Amino acid sequence: MARPAVGRGRLCVLAWIVLALASCAVLPGVLARTHGIPPDLPGSPSAQAHAVLARDLPQFGEEQLVLAFDSATLGSDDEAYQQVLTAAARAVRAAPGGAHVLPVPDSPGRDPHHAYLLLGAPGDAAERQRLLPAWQAAAEHAAESAAESASNGQVRVALTGLTPVFDELQRADLRDLRGVEAVSVPAALLVLVLGLGSVGAALVPLLFAGLGVLVGIGALAALDPVLPVDGATLTVATTVGFGLGLDYSLLMLLRYRAHREQGLAPAAASARTRATAGRAVMWCAAAVVVTSAGLTTVPIPLVRSIGVAAAATTVITAAVALTALPAALPGLDRLLHLGRVRRRPARTSTAAGTSAVDAAVDAADGPGPLFRILSGARSRIIPAGSTGKPSKYTQYEDGSPALPAGRPTPRADPTRSGREGLVARCAEHLMRRPWPYLLAAVGLLVLAALPAGGLRLGLKVDRTAIAGTAAGAGLSRLEQDGMADITMIVLPHPAGAGPVDTLALTDALKADPRVSSAGALDNGRNLTVVAVADRIPVDSPDSPRLTADLRALAARSLPADQPVLLGGPAATLGDFHRALDRALWRVAAIAVAGTFLLMLVAFRSLLLPFKALAMNALSTAAAYGLLAWSTRHTDSTVNLATPLLALTIVFGLSLDYEVFMVHRITAHYRARGDCRRAVALGLSETALPITLAAATMATVFAGLLITHRQDLQQLGFLVAAAVLLDATLIRLVVVPTLMRLLGHLNWWLPLANRRRPARQPAPAGSLPNQLPTATAQLLKTAGGPTDDTPGAP
């Protein structure tokens, strides 16, 4: 899309703005339709139990919710209290959905001011989500009316259960999302201003990252009929999209500024930016999409939604960076210098065009056939020795973009001071002493990773996030009264065979101190159900053990051929936990295999993908270790979904920086054939952009620390820590030193007839006959031809 993005830049930008405005128009509807996705697992044993129960005992519905009543003045046996219970049950039955209401037997230790009714909720998860407000409103209105008529006090009612709790959690996520944006955007702007040196330059990545996020939300709205979106999905998609949008826009902007400093006109600098940095952005986005695709293989709707949302927002933010940003940069050129907070280092100019080394590096870094096909770039190919006047779309036949002849090209003074000179000197020092720095950095990462073995994983209902809500209040009452969970033991039997003898089972259950009550019910045809109320919270580490004990007790107390199915919140969360545990390794395998193949194609090397995977694993393990260390003095567990999501996000982001750095090192290596020099130059050119991008990304994810959800706080800490470790110790120390030690083996590819690249001369006519002394000395240092080199022009 080079011509629409450059030749018709205004139309391209206008098209993206129209898409963003359309997304803004549908945003209120997206937020209104957003609902919490309960941890249902289709096809699991608990789902089968719920299906049998809804079919043969429809009064229990697909899910069993609880109406929890409480009064400060009335006891549950008072006549006025009983009138409230009767009125609430009648109102809920008459509400849309036709839910059934059943009494709940008293349990020992129950608060005398509390009472409970079981609500059999019909329909699938989406329908139950839609009907929740109607049921809650009907019960509250009936309770208020009955209490007023009795004039004996007020009775409060709350609807609770898995679906109401997760619905309240997603509402908390949406409230937190606004706070995250209010903190992350100004913080990211501050980091960008300090890194880029001007307010105008800092605003450009923010604007285009926000553009990508808006269009991404519109895409999620378009996928709404087939992709359920909850608050967590929207939060993760927005955070990932905004962070990646900043990353990609920052990479393009920095390369554009570098080309402008070389003397290119704005339009030519924009075209070359797309041809060079655009290729790196495409590979970076492909890496994130590959890792996100692993989440779509998990048989859990919530996880699949997050995977699809992350992949979609990645594609959209990359498309914005590849099309809208290059199209707008020439028009925004003057804006980049507004609000300057520091001076850029002074540079010296020559009258020469692009040097031979620059041309060779641009040739290696230029657009490949895949990029030209996917982006629709149209270039006029001219022979390498041609002296014809090139246009801004012209390329030499070796793939290097041509510069307008005779344009003065500022060259950096090799002896200049400032940050870039300091980075170059540090890179050279690192190349001279690779072993001490490599061992020290790896030692620190291994030390940070050691606590990862003590990471406590589990599923936790974040009660702090739902404190003060009706669902949270009802859950708290149930747990106080020893009815933290209600498990349904579903016992199908042949029609006409009579009820299953459950006397021994119920007696054994009542003798268990963890069980508060147990009772059996038969439908008179083909199903017997034992309802078990227990004192163990559904997210307690003891809950899976109790579920296993119930299953084992049923097997001992019932005939050997009796089918036994367990349903209820604890059984559902147990199936969810096991599915996540299995999915973690499958997603990791997909991410590893996919990224290995992607980098094998990108770098045409066998060792570089292995090195990248090892570095990603090391930084991820170190981040897990830091998370385990931060939670070791608390009683909080780490949600099992957090490492799963962080694994895909961190792997994708780490590959972003890997592709960015190694892509540039490879370009220098293919241009010069000198591995040590290529690593030093690639590191000096990418150290500051990677550090700035990582600082911005860490700032965005650190914004999740202000949310009320422990899951999101842990995810934000984990990703921010992994990004900072990866961008500092891994990319700035371990990767360059390791590549320096491996030398030419970095690009080893068996069974490929490849030879070590030789130094490439400049295309004929691209250099003047006489080079200034400073430029000649710089080329001599870099290994390029000079005036006193045999064969030089």
What summary fits the major beta sheet? 4 strands, antiparallel
Query: Average pLDDT, to the nearest integer?
Result: 81
Count of spatially separate domains: 4
The CATH topology of the largest domain: Multidrug efflux transporter AcrB transmembrane fold
What does this structure look like?
The longest helix has 35 residues, at 162-196. It contains 23 helices and 14 strands. The protein has four domains: 1-32 and 171-340, Multidrug efflux transporter AcrB transmembrane domain (Multidrug efflux transporter AcrB transmembrane fold, Up-down Bundle), CATH 1.20.1640.10; 45-166, 2-Layer Sandwich (Alpha-Beta Plaits), CATH 3.30.70; 412-454 and 580-751, Multidrug efflux transporter AcrB transmembrane fold (Up-down Bundle), CATH 1.20.1640; 482-574, Alpha-Beta Plaits, CATH 3.30.70. The protein is an alpha+beta fold and 793 residues long. The protein has helices at 2-7, 9-33, 45-56, 79-94, 125-150, 162-196, 199-222, 231-261, 266-293, 301-328, 356-365, 369-375, 419-432, 434-449, 470-480, 503-511, 543-557, 569-603, 607-631, 641-672, 675-702, 710-742, 773-782; strands at residues 63-71, 100-103, 114-121, 155-160, 348-350, 380-382, 394-396, 409-411, 457-458, 485-492, 515-522, 527-534, 565-567, 638-639. Helix 9 (266-293) packs across helix 18.
